């Protein structure tokens, strides 16, 4: 029995009065890659953003349900969101480094957490950039603006930035959707290198990507979790007709 | 065949209209350019006459401390030292910008980051109102509120650089604030999201990401406000005291380029030295507004990543 790092039960989410998630039960194995697939508007990104409380930013969103991260309730009133988001990092669809140097970007999370030691910062920046498989491309230009990089490089710097705070879980919201196929495959390689080091939950529209990299796949539709199983099972022998239709491209 | 050929070679009605429109818009542009160029030429020719026909030394003009264009000193040279006014103009401008910037940034942060809904409701009307108030009203309020207050606090007459800077601060605040708000609004939302997702607090997000990315825009806003402050005449003239002396402190009467200009230009004869030196002051104003423009452009260029 593998260790469950994150367990969610009966997750309901409302935008104003409109219910966007109708009771999702999902749990994630430690150091697995879990892919969330489904048509646009099925609630997979919405669900993902609930996991590190990004919905706190919007004032008309209500989240109900249980979210247990290492046995702690994420939505407990005394949860420190700053602390939580250092443990559950996030990478967005658009590559979005800050308009600072590459170094400052990666060191950002460390500095906000109060780390000032130059040696530690240098070391962690290097380690994170290596983890994100971009170190060789940027090691000579660490003090150049991160915006001078290509889209794929920017996305890997964004991943390095998220890794720098050594999160236990990395949430990736369509990390390759805005990239060309070459850059996308590099980002995918990065994720493959990171597997077994941390837990990753990735929202993707690419069925091929989900089948290539994930251990488990969850299929969302219309705010419901239709099926959740091993990736092989989902793609080769899905239990539900809707899943079969979606993965074979009959809708969505 | 010939008929078709002829009609093809001739200009169509549409292309004639097109050409007419082009000529019309171009002449409008030309007219504006001519107006700007002739203003420059006029001010420059008058302003430079001080140095070429009246033989005033440029350095004496810029660094001299005695201003009494009608009189001459022991060597028979006219007293045309403009340094007191130049210093006064720069002092009120920088002081006003110095006071206005933190207020503008604070207001803008509140209105965009802390309470956008209330911010939008308050900022629009207040800004429009403040911009719409004529400068004579600002000057009058300065005269009847700020000057007595400063007199009470610091002694003296209350007129001076500080009073001028206070009035200008209120006058440029709406401009600087609304431009800062625009800059902060244009900081992409994903910067905020990714900063928070990295475990930054709200304050860290504002301070380390939003303000930092918006720095070029905020600088532009401040320089824009300074350009306005530098050129403002009436309100400053009403509270600064209009003594063409080197300002020795912030609460004794002083003067600015604009205040001496508005006072003197009607009382001098065209073509005389007294009149020409005033044009030289105007030339300095014009050149300074050019400099402010160049600074704004340089910042914008550097800020566009």
Question: Would you mind describing this structure in some detail?
Answer:
Chain B: Belongs to the binding-protein-dependent transport system permease family. CysTW subfamily. Chain B: Its main location: membrane. Chain B: GO terms for molecular function: phosphate transmembrane transporter activity. The complex is a heterodimer of chains A (252) and B (305). Chain A is of the alpha/beta class and 252 residues long. Chain A has a single domain, classed as Rossmann fold (3-Layer(aba) Sandwich). Chain A has 10 helices and 10 strands. Chain A has helices spanning 44-50, 81-87, 102-112, 118-131, 135-138, 151-163, 181-194, 207-213, 231-236, 241-247, and strands spanning 4-15, 18-29, 33-37, 61-69, 72-73, 88-91, 169-173, 199-203, 216-221, 224-230. In chain A, the strands form 2 sheets. In chain A, strands 6-7-8-3-9-10 form a 6-stranded mixed sheet, sandwiched between helices. A 4-stranded antiparallel sheet of chain A has the order 2-1-4-5, with helices on one face. Chain A starts with a strand and ends in a 5-residue tail after the last helix. The mean pLDDT of chain A is 89. With 305 residues, chain B is mainly α. Chain B has a single domain, classed as MetI-like fold. Chain B is 76% helix and 3% strand. Chain B contains 12 helices and 2 strands. Chain B has helices at residues 2-9, 13-52, 58-63, 83-114, 116-132, 135-154, 161-185, 189-197, 202-231, 234-240, 257-264, 273-303, and strands at 67-72, 78-80. A two-stranded antiparallel sheet of chain B has the order 1-2. The termini of chain B are far apart. The model of chain B has no long low-confidence stretch (mean pLDDT 89). At the A-B interface, helix 2, helix 3 and helix 6 of A face helix 8 and helix 9 of B.
């Amino acid at each position: 029995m593998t260790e469950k790092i994150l367990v969610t039960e009966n997750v309901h989410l409302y935008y104003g009065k409109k219910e966007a998630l109708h009771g999702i039960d999902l749990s994630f194995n430690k150091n697995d890659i879990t892919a969330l697939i489904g048509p646009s508007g099925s609630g997979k990104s919405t669900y993902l953003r609930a996991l590190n409380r990004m919905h706190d930013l919007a004032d008309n969103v209500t989240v109900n349900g249980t979210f247990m991260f290492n046995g702690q309730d994420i939505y407990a009133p005394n949860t420190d969101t700053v602390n939580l988001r250092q443990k559950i990092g996030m990478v967005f669809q658009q590559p979005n480094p800050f308009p600072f140097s590459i170094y400052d970007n990666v060191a950002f999370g460390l500095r906000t957490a109060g780390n000032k030691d130059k040696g530690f910062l240098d070391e962690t920046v290097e380690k994170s950039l290596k983890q994100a498989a971009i170190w060789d491309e940027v090691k000579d230009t660490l003090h150049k603006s991160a915006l001078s990089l290509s889209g794929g490089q920017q996305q890997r710097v964004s991943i390095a930035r998220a890794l720098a705070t050594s999160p236990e879980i990395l949430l990736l919201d369509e990390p390759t959707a805005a990239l060309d196929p070459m850059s996308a495959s590099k980002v995918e390689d990065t994720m493959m290198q990171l597997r077994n080091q941390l837990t990753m939950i990735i929202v993707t529209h690419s069925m091929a990507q989900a089948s290539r990299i994930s251990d488990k796949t969850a299929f969302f539709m219309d705010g419901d979790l239709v099926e959740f199983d091993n990736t092989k099972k989902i793609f080769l022998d899905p239990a539900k007709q809707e899943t079969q239709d979606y993965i074979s491209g009959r809708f969505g | 065949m010939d008929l078709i050929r002829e009609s093809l070679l001739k200009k169509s009605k549409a292309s004639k209209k097109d050409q007419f429109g082009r000529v019309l818009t171009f002449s409008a542009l030309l007219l504006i350019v001519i107006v700007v160029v002739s203003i420059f030429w006029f001010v420059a020719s008058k302003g430079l006459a001080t140095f070429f026909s009246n033989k005033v030394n440029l350095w004496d003009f810029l660094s001299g401390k005695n201003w009494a264009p009608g009189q001459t000193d022991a060597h028979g040279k006219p007293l045309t030292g403009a340094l007191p006014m130049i210093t006064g103009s720069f002092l009120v401008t920088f002081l006003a910008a110095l006071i206005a910037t933190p207020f503008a940034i604070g207001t803008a942060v509140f209105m965009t980051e802390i309470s956008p809904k209330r911010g939008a409701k308050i900022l629009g009307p207040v800004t429009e109102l403040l911009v719409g108030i004529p400068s004579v009203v600002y000057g009058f309020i300065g005269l009847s509120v700020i000057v007595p207050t400063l007199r009470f606090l610091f002694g003296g007459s209350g007129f001076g650089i500080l009073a001028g800077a206070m009035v200008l601060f209120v006058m440029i605040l709406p401009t600087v604030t609304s431009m800062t708000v625009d800059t902060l609004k244009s900081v992409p939302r994903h910067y905020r999201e990714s900063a928070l997702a990295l475990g930054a607090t709200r304050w860290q997000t504002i301070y380390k990401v939003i303000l930092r990315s918006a720095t070029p825009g905020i600088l532009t806003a401040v320089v824009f406000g300074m350009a306005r402050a530098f050129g403002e005449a009436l309100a400053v003239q009403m509270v600064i005291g209009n003594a063409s002396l080197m300002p020795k402190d912030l609460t004794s009467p002083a003067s600015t380029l604009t205040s001496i200009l508005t006072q003197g230009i009607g009382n001098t004869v065209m073509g005389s030295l007294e009149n020409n030196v005033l044009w030289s002051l105007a030339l300095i104003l014009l050149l300074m507004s050019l400099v402010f423009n160049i600074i704004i452009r340089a910042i914008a260029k550097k800020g566009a990543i």
